[in-house]
Amino acid sequence: MKKITFIGTGYVGLVSGAGVSDFGHNVICADIASDKIDQLLDGEIPIYEPGLNNLVERNVKAGRLTFTTAVDKAIQDADVIFIAVGTPQGENGNADLSAVYKVAETIGNNLNGYKVVCTKSTVPIGTGAQILQIINQYKSNEIEFDYVSNPEFLREGSAVKDFLWPDRVVLGTPSEKAYEVMMDVYRPLFINETPIVKTSIQTAEMIKYASNAFLALKISYINEIANLCDEVDADIHEVTKAMGSDGRISPKFLHPGPGYGGSCFPKDTNAIASLARQKGLTLRTVEGAIKANQYQKDRMVDKVKHLCNGDVSGKTIAILGLAFKQETDDIRDSAALDMIKALLKSNAVVKAYDPIANKNMSIKFPEVNYCLNWEAAVEGADATVILTEWREFRGMDLNKVKELMHQPVLLDTRNILPIKELNRLGFKYDNVGRKGINKDAL
Ligand code: UGA
Predict the structure, then answer these.
(1) What percentage of the chain reaches a pLDDT higher than 90?
(2) 3-198: what CATH class?
(3) Ligand 1 centroid from CA 145, angstroms
(4) Dist CA 209 CA 268 (whole Å)
(5) I need a surface site. Which of 9, 10, 319, 355 has the fewest CB within 10 A?
């Protein structure tokens, strides 16, 4: 079994570190943020991620997973070091790589024998070469190391499952020796016949961006088709069902909505488009997806205003769902941010409820009235807007919603509510691309 250190205990580092320890390796998760490490040492998980609690607890108990702020020692003690620090969006759409470069320097300073250095953070194509150069600059001459790009494909909300049962593992390295070490790290997956893609460093970096940009493009595409469905009275559900049954298209990531958010698609599409521009190319499709996504968020605001006869000033609007998707408390680039900002600017009174993201949103918008359940949020509202597809909103008793609201007006940006029921109860409603639903078939 290998001794493995993860640097960075964000959702990538923590999920991957805990996952690798579950494979039987001895893992240290290291971070300079002492508050996070203190929490982890106290048995608390700093992020909300289904299944992560159990995974961490199980491996801590088994003695395979430990946490530390002593990054230097964690590097010295490891056979394999994973870089899993954040790469937030910096200026001009480029990824901010300062944390990655700082870690490379620390690795160089503490390299005390042959190790494999592996990047999991999402870094622009060409960053691997920079990391190699920095480590070489800081390490002692006689010590060898190899470098691997091993991008992650974890979705927030299902990251544990995605880590333990991945569709593929990408290993970008020119070194056979490092590849063999990484095959050992991922051996349990190899036994499960998970496809392992061995490639160059740059190709591995490109696979990550190309995958995320493609998924973002797919969402923006279906959002635009849903918008057109609105205009021509077609039903997007039937359209996507038929489209998705074509194996070349697949039904996944064909759900229209209020525009994609999160810490990945917005950042990564901007980063790849920006990289292309620096190389003298324009990624017209990706740039189109970025524009379409902003339009989608704005369109949802227009839909609410339209439902409120063009004016939300003084009206009470209930927002259900603040996280960028279900099963997470992450609000980064969530459609709720644009919605709340626009509503407040138009002098609406905003009430909101999310099962776990109220706290995060209240830091951004303290002026919103945060509620403890959906019933309290919709009470007295002139319009309700569903922005996140939480299961508890799918099962809402619409009779009760109508009873509690000042008037039954509703925008379902995730298309999760039964239209038959909304019609029966006399709701004035809108959704994304379902105007042409075949009412006779309801
Ligand atoms: C995304 C990718 O799916 C992961 O493979 C990748 O590892 C991750 O980014 C990353 O780079 O770290 P994530 O952002 O966590 O994962 O969540 P997704 O499930 O991809 O959803 C992203 C956004 O797209 C959400 O706002 C979601 O509501 C929206 N979406 C997704 C749709 O509007 N429609 C869909 O059909 C699917």
Answers:
(1) 93
(2) alpha beta
(3) 34
(4) 6
(5) 10
329-367 pLDDT, tens per residue? 999 999 999 999 999 999 999 999 999 999 999 999 999
Interval between CA 328 and ligand 1 midpoint (Å) = 11
**155 CA to centre of ligand 1 in angstroms:** 6
Q: What's the pLDDT at 439?
A: 64
Of 29, 118, 229, 264, which one is the catalytic site residue?
Answer: 264
Q: State which of 47, 150, 219, 354 you would mutate to test the pocket of ligand 1, scoring each by most atoms of that ligand within 8 A of its C-beta.
A: 219
Q: Which residues of 351-377 are buried (b: 16+ CB within 10 A; e: fewer)?
A: bbbbbebbebbeeebeebebbeebeeb
442 pLDDT more than 80: no
User: What is 212-430's CATH topology?
Assistant: Rossmann fold (3.40.50)
pLDDT value of residue 312:
97
Q: Per-residue pLDDT tens for 30-63?
A: 999 999 999 999 999 999 999 999 999 999 999 9
pTM over 0.85: yes
- Ligand 1 nearest-atom number relative to CA 388: 28
118 catalytic? Reply is: no
Q: Taking the domains of the chain in order of start, what are their residue ranges?
A: 3-198, 212-430
Q: Which atom of ligand 1 is nearest to the CA of 151?
A: 7
The tokens of 158 are what?
A: 């299902």
- Strand pairing category for 316-320 and 196-199: unpaired
C-alpha to C-alpha distance for 306 and 338, rounded to whole angstroms: 17
Common-topology check for domains 3-198 and 212-430 = yes
Q: Evaluate the CA torsion angle 45, 51, 56, 62 in order and state its sign.
A: positive
